[in-house]
Amino acid sequence: MFDDESLGVAALEIGLQQVTVAAVAKHIGVRSSALYRLVSSKDDLVLLAIEQIARTIVPVPDEGTWQDVLRRFAAQTWRLCETYPGFNEALVNIPGAFAAFDTNAAYLANLLTKRGISAAQAGFATDLVGDMVLGTHRWKQGLERSWAAAETGRARTRLVAQGHQPARQLPPEVVDGTFLQRKVDFLITSLEHHWPELPSLAAFCADRLPPELRQDPLRFRKPSQPSDEQ
């Protein structure tokens, strides 16, 4: 027997970029036709995998300033992209994927509103930082693919001609995270001077979180899941 959770686990074990209905069916030992009572496509399986990821996220600590909260959120999002290849593409390309993180987004907005930020401003900031991290990671993936491509490829030739970055390896500031940190710091400095609001995301404010999750955010996480902070 299998259910949504076991299919999501199987999809993660196969990998977001490699998962197919046939691959999951083989992984759990059933025929592909058996899966169609719960899913109708590869995208459905990716969504189930994304939901599994969302369930195991350890919320950022309720410590420090709002700047600290946003920096930890950026670092956490980057780790997810690194841990689950294809994660950022799934969030961007599959309708509804972001909805799996509604509760996590509400908790993050709760942390920001507790630090004097309006719910609409919190919505704007989390959207801005999240988009920046996902976009930066997609750029990093593009560079990695170019290093693995044929030496005579047009893209490789153009990279060599640019001269401002190495043609055979990732720039060191990308590898050590300095590039991401600088971009996050720039966004935070900008918000310190002018912080727009995004009312459409204000629904993720603290009063939309279940009270028990506000009191104990680690209940988001399954007991067997190690903390991101370890």
Automatic annotation (TrEMBL):
<dbReference type="InterPro" id="IPR036271">
    <property type="entry name" value="Tet_transcr_reg_TetR-rel_C_sf"/>
</dbReference>
<protein>
    <submittedName>
        <fullName>Uncharacterized protein</fullName>
    </submittedName>
</protein>
<dbReference type="InterPro" id="IPR009057">
    <property type="entry name" value="Homeodomain-like_sf"/>
</dbReference>
